[in-house]
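Allow me, if you will, to draw on your knowledge of protein folds for a short while. Thank you for your consideration; the sequence and its tokens are set out here:
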Amino acid sequence: MAIVEGWLPASRENWETLTFWWQFYAILASFQWLVSWYGMGKTSVESKFNIPGRIAWITMEAPGFITLLYIMTTLPIQHGITDLPWQNKVLASLFVMHYIYRAILFPFLQPSMSPIHVAVWSGAVVFQFCNATAIGGWLAAYGPTTQLQWDAQGFSVARFSVGLVIFYVGLIGNYFSDEELREIRRSETRRQGKLKQQGKTIHKHYEVPQNGLFKYMLFPHYFMEWIEWTGYWIAGGLAFTPARAFLLNEFVAMLPRAVAGGKWYKEKFGEEKIKGKYVIVPGVY
């Protein structure tokens, strides 16, 4: 039973329309270059439209994997597909795995989370729905749904395996980069606790991450997520256009945030503290 007739799950016509326009989301995301403000994290501001960090994060990230799971369980039935190829199931599982971490585990592992402006929250919800609909529709019914169709697209176990390895390298690198940032926050929480016990004034303290990939760049968690979704696209193949669009959209949406964050680090700590570190792409920028 469809939740929204023609859209959840999407009909082929609506899916094709969304998938076509979804490739141009990067144009919308590029408008971030024109503003210095971003409604979450280091550049967030006080606002009555802010949502508490954990609540906002869970509710804006979870629609992605929930939508994809719903599509994977309903759309094949609508199209008389009784069993999808293992490739479709693996790719769907990888997507869900990523977002189980990002949407559910990540916010509870964080010692603290900055509030998120409702404008950012709304944009993220729309992004998750569109992205999950594009990828889910391809995996559930509108991409290859038999082994013969996969073979016709030039499928090879070697390419799929290489894609999986790259995906997991990105996923693991992303996790450990997040963990380094969490450890800094845990240390800061302990420091503030001691000062509070001593009756001293507490001032928020920032520091430049130095361990792991942070030795070489300021935003390895962004970079490793790009690696992750590059592997995902490689595994699915060139014909997996929603995965290509996802990778491009992630790149265009995250790059201006990293550039703004790099400027923040420079202003906060000075050139010497971040000397020798790339902002986000090793050897390039």
Notes: Residues 12-274 form one domain. The radius of gyration is 21 Å. The chain has one domain: 12-274. The CA atoms of residues 112 and 234 lie 35 Å apart.
